[in-house]
Write a structure and sequence with these properties.
This protein has eight helices and seven strands. About 45% of the residues lie in helices and about 15% in strands. Keywords: Hydrolase, Membrane, Protease, Thiol protease, Transmembrane, Transmembrane helix.
């Protein structure tokens, strides 16, 4: 009796589990990317199908916390909130600082730009009290505009500031404000005037547009990830479901692969 029970368990359970995992597999992805492993999908499924974890913190990194409810927004085609954006940006910075083959990256959190734009430099200058952002090659600035996520990538080495918006809109005020911030920060922390002659300020158009109202946060995360490696962007809207799963797993294990 027990023997047949074990046979049924080992034959039926993997099939049932595979059925549960099926919605997380077989999504279009760019060339060079692989499907997530069975173990990766399994680790996420345990969280997905356990609503009792809703308010439980499942990820902590660089002072940011993510509970299951926020984590689930990555999966269900929802708008990403600050917690997800900040965790992912911190992972990008962690990877760059642990890999000498990549540009050194500093990532501001999502509250930096809104505070700077609302209250000016004096309200944010203490945020980098013990840091010299100019020691980095790339600075990532998430831009939160009401219900839309954009991104600015400041490349100190290549002397340029790129504005990424998956709706392809311009924001001159943003780039002017960040230019002013860099000048003030250089004087405040290093007592050195920052010469920005010859800098390029770009609103990128050769980037994939979003085709819905909820994926702007995912696009911004991916723009930051590709830019942090100075890699050409190879994804499109059709790849976003795959990257939502990939981002979720990277957040869960607190590590980005190159």
């Amino acid at each position: 009796m027990y023997f047949y029970g074990y046979i049924i368990y080992f034959l039926v359970w993997p099939t049932c589990f595979a059925f549960i995992l099926w919605p997380l597999t077989k999504k279009p992805k760019p060339r060079g990317y692989r499907d997530l492993s069975y173990n990766a999908l399994r680790s996420m499924t345990i969280i997905i199908y356990n609503p009792k974890l809703n308010d439980q913190i499942i990820v902590k990194n660089s002072g940011f916390e993510l509970n299951r409810k926020d984590f689930m927004t990555i999966f269900w085609n929802e708008w990403l909130n600050d917690e997800v954006i900040n965790i992912y940006a911190s992972l990008i910075a962690d990877r760059s600082n642990n890999n000498n083959d990549l540009p050194k990256v500093y990532a501001f959190n999502s509250f930096f730009y809104s505070t700077l734009s609302s209250n000016g430099y004096d309200r944010v200058k203490r945020w980098t009290k013990n840091k010299d952002i100019f020691e980095n090659q790339i600075i990532i600035v998430p831009i939160h505009l009401s219900i839309h996520w954009c991104l600015v990538v400041i490349d100190l080495e290549e002397r340029k500031m790129d504005y990424y918006d998956s709706l392809h809109q311009d924001n001159f005020e943003c780039l002017e404000l960040l230019q002013e911030y860099l000048i003030n920060e250089s004087m405040d922390k290093r007592q050195i005037p920052l010469d920005m002659n010859g800098w390029q300020f770009n609103f990128l158009r050769n980037i994939p547009p979003q085709r819905n109202i909820s994926d702007c946060g995912v696009f911004s995360c991916l723009f930051a990830e590709f830019a942090s490696r100075r890699a050409p962007i190879t994804f499109t809207q059709e790849h976003i479901p795959y990257f939502r799963e990939r981002i979720a797993y990277q957040v869960l294990r607190k590590e980005l692969s190159v």
